[in-house]
Structure formats: C-alpha cells, structure tokens
Design a protein that fits this description.
- The protein contains eleven helices and twelve strands.
- With 292 residues, the chain is of the alpha/beta class.
- It has one domain: 3-Layer(aba) Sandwich (Rossmann fold), CATH 3.40.50.
- The strands form four sheets. The protein has a six-stranded parallel sheet, with helices on both faces. A two-stranded parallel ribbon has the order 5-12.
- Helix 1 links the parallel strand 1 and strand 2.
- Helix 1 packs across helix 7 and helix 8 runs parallel beside helix 11.
- The longest helix has 22 residues.
- The two termini are 36 Å apart.
Length: 292
C-alpha cells in the first residue's frame, strides 16, 4: 500500500502524518500537486501523479474551517466552497478514473442548530439538517454538500466524521484549549473526537474490509460543557473563573455569527470495526498529560 496524504500540515493532517509514520505505512504528502485556489484544474496533474507514484489510497485531511472559527466562513464563502466542496469533487473524479479508494475527513457539525439536536442521537442514516438557506452555518452546509456529492457518485470513499477534536496538547484548534480561553461558555451537550483516537480509527478502517461510506468517528458517549469544565478544574486546577451564558440567545447576541452545531453522534457502526475509548476517559487522560 502507498498512501497519498493531502493536508498534512493541518491539525488533523499532521496527526495522520504521525500515525502513518508510527504504524510504518508507506505514504507521501501532497506538496504542490493540487492548486488549492482551483482544485478542479488539477485533475489531470493529480491523476498523472497518482499513476506515476502508484498510489493505492488517498487521505483528504484538507479543508477550510475558518480562523479563528467558523464565523470566518460566513465572510469567506468562496474559499470555504473551494476547500470543502471543489477539492472533494476533484478527488471523486480522480478516484473514479483510477479506481483508487480514499478517505475524506468530514464533520459531525451537521445537526443540532439553535437547540434542535441535544435530545436526539444521530447515526449515519440520518439526513443532515445543514442545508444552504435553510439551516446551519455556511461551513456545515459545505461539508454536508461534499458528503452528498460523494454518496451520489458512488465513489469508493470512507467519509470520516470528526467532532470537536482535542488531545493533551494546547492548540487553537483543540476543544479543551478553546474552553480554557473563551471569556464565556455555553452549556450544551456534544460528542467529541480525541484527535489521535480519531486518526487511528480512520487508519484502522482504511486497512480493514469495512464497507465504504459514512462513519461517525467519535469517542463513545457524550459530555456537557459543564462536565468538561469540572474536569478541567479538578485536574488542571486553573486560576481561571469559568462563566456561562444564560442561554443561546445571549450567546449569539454576544459571541457568535454562524449557527453552531451541538449534537450527539452514534458510533455503533464504527465500533463494529474499531475500539473507541469513552469520551470522558479520553478527556481525563488528555488533561492529566496536558502540555502547553
């Protein structure tokens, strides 16, 4: 097997790079093969590259999430579409032409907008609520559209849904770092993905005989923001005094522009092929080994 890794410098892509190396899986990083401003123009170039390098699997860990958060996607819609829709379309074409299977880092931020999802559990058969002009952030809608294109085309693809990633190392992308740095928090219920649990699970699926399709790659169980804060206070003993918004209306009035997703994902399908830690256990382990 020889893997082409796209997006190796990102928060999730860099974890893929470490895990593939640790597990002695032969891989090469995409470096300049794809025109990120216009991925569709790179189809022939990428096709030739994959043929020459004898690529047998492609991992797409690239995408546009917005900095510092998804609010930026509302004002940078062109870049968001290019990174989250045009790039997957490019890979669909190349995958089909060369019969190369691939894995796509997707998002679990597809349900639970404005308080609609906390009393529900979503599995891979549930149609996303995110829909342009109807519900969800622009970011969530692009991720839902990419999944729709992948499913409609029938390409040999694992869609790996990620949800609020974290681990023991402080980062602007780390869910725990965000909670510790925000001035005020909203108490909601969510599934979570430990960054390396997520990547190892994706690689396990890649190496397995599991069917292609959508997988909720999250740790087992779910947590509330208040529970995570209690774990932070209990284990890290920070000086910070955490405070919470009274409700979602106050949160959106003060701190957010784009609709936020808060939801619980069912990982039963994933656990038929891969073992996953409990979300609470992964949180506690990360906080005990916390590094700035």
């Amino acid at each position: 097997m020889k893997v082409l890794l796209i997006g190796s410098t990102g928060y999730i892509g860099s974890a893929f790079k470490k895990v593939l190396t640790k597990r002695s899986i032969n891989f090469i990083v995409e470096d300049g093969v794809i025109d990120r401003a216009d991925p569709m123009s790179s189809i022939s170039h990428l096709e030739d590259f994959c043929s020459t390098e004898r690529i047998s699997f492609i991992i797409n860990a690239a995408g546009y999430t917005g900095k510092p958060n998804v609010d930026a996607c509302e004002t940078n819609q062109g870049d968001t579409m290019v990174g989250n829709v045009d790039l997957p379309q490019t890979l669909i074409t190349v995958s089909n032409r060369l019969s190369i299977p691939w894995g796509h880092v997707s998002s679990g931020c597809l349900w639970g907008f404005t308080g609609t999802g906390e009393d529900k559990i979503y599995d891979e058969t549930t149609r996303p609520d995110a829909d342009f002009g109807v519900m969800g952030s622009f970011y969530s809608c692009t991720k839902a559209l990419a999944e729709k294109l992948i499913s409609a085309d029938g390409t040999k693809c694992f869609v790996w849904r990620l949800r609020l990633p974290f681990d023991n190392k402080s980062s602007p992308r780390n869910y725990l770092s965000k909670l510790m740095n925000y001035d005020k928090l909203l108490n909601v219920t969510n599934s979570l993905s430990h960054r390396y649990d997520y990547v190892h699970a994706c690689v396990d699926l890649m190496l397995s005989d599991a069917d292609f399709g959508k997988y909720n790659v999250v740790n087992t169980g779910h947590v509330t923001t208040e529970l995570v804060v209690e774990k932070i206070k209990e284990i890290l003993l920070p000086d910070k005094q955490f405070s919470f918004f009274t409700n979602e209306r106050e949160f959106y009035d003060i701190a957010a522009t784009a609709a936020r997703s808060n939801c619980i994902l069912d990982n039963s399908k994933l656990r038929k092929h891969v073992k996953m830690r409990l979300a609470v256990s992964a949180l506690e382990d990360s906080l005990r080994d916390w590094t700035e």
